[in-house]
User: What shape does this take?
Amino acid sequence: MSAPHIDETLQVTPLHALHIELGAKMVPFAGYDMPVQYKDGVLAEHLHTRTAAGLFDVSHMGQAWIEGPDFETVAKALETLVPGDILGLAPGAIRYTLLLNDKGGIRDDLMVTWPAEPARANSIFIIVNAACKEADFAHIAANLPAGISLKPIADRALIALQGPKAVEVFARFAPAAAEMIFMTAKAIDVAGIPCLVSRSGYTGEDGYEISVPEKDAVALTKKLLGEPEVKPIGLGARDSLRLEAGLCLYGHDIDETTTPIEAALGWVIGKRRREEANFPGAKIILDQIANGVTRKRVGLLPEGKAPAREGTEIVGGDKIIGTITSGGYGPSVAGPIAMGYVATDFSKVGTDVELMVRGKGRPAKVVAMPFTEKRFHKTK
Amino acid sequence: MSEIRFTDQHEWVRVDGDVATVGITDYAQEQLGDVVYVELPEVGKSIAAGEEAAVVESVKAASEVYAPVSGDVVEVNADLEAAPGGVNEDAMGKGWFVKLKLSDKSELSKLMDEEAYKSFVEGLA
Assistant: This one.
């Protein structure tokens, strides 16, 4: 247990001093000194995001442009590394996709946007995980043909505003953002600051992720925090919110050893991409689609009150049939929740299993995810 | 007259006669954050000093509560099972975990008194 500190070997985001000023408890995360919680604590921050609006600093994540002569050329180049239909993106659309290795394992998960603005028509905007960003950027850059380049964006912060009040609050600074539908992006002035605004998130709530010039990040964050509905939210609640929403955390629920099919992320593979079978690991992945997999990622609801954490063994029919990859307490569920991989025979919703917590088998059920209702803005 | 002692793992033990009440300190509850689950031992169980007496879990992580002294469990704080947040509200009082019937009172002398624990915590900052 340690007190707030600044570790000189850690990187900081443009909002670092503001986190300290707001009383955050700072922890090392993916090489950055990040707020795990503020004064209200993880529980209150989680519930606040579900009922009002939470503001998150996610500037540690990796933002980059992939630029080329035109969108089609850039999209085709990126498609050699991911299984998503990038070529089919409409202007301003965002797609969740995966960087795959040759065995079909997941190198990272990422957001891919084709900006609608004519000035950016030849570019694709990507956001990758903090812990993977250097490896991702090197991998992508090394695999792009001549004439297409990856340009990491080091001079922009990334903040997220999430929750049922996020749209109403954000409209006070950027009225045009209220019209956006989920998984679209737009270059908008927010309180006079030029931002790239995505209607997306990692909480299961409606809201925005805002790429903002580094020099304006503190001013914009303070403006949003000045609204009565908005509170700062740390990484602790970010994790419990995404777990309730059934969303994967890279390095835990998905990694180089899990395929999209095992991870129940088969929906990311575009129909055309299946037919073309030209993404990394396509042979293995298409075989898994056709013939099934030996294990699958599922939601797990413990029947008692004891949380079952990452690494907990899952027992079915007196045998170890899997492992929990994310588990804890869901503040909105008001009880323990988990996800993990189980042998396919045990992956059906409603299957009874046992979770080995502190040497004792505790009953749990395989359940559908999300654990809480998603509230995305899908239509105008 | 009761006396209170502390461990360097941030447990406290308050002794009345031959019964020791055990909990975690205010510093510990603050470090843990919101407590969402507490697992308590069976009444009658013998626990040696330094062994796990209970488990306390926050949203993020599970931590063991170690017995500061050896003894048999004579009572557990069942209120915490329904309302684990009691640990955050009153760690040094109503948020106690277990009562042990002391088997070796001399173990208490190895633990810190209030003043020693206070300076120990200050040294952690």
User: Anything to note?
Assistant: The mean pLDDT of chain B is 95. The CA atoms of residues 11 and 24 of chain B lie 4 Å apart. Chain B is about 20% helix and 35% strand. Helices of chain B lie at 26-32, 79-82, 86-89, 114-122.
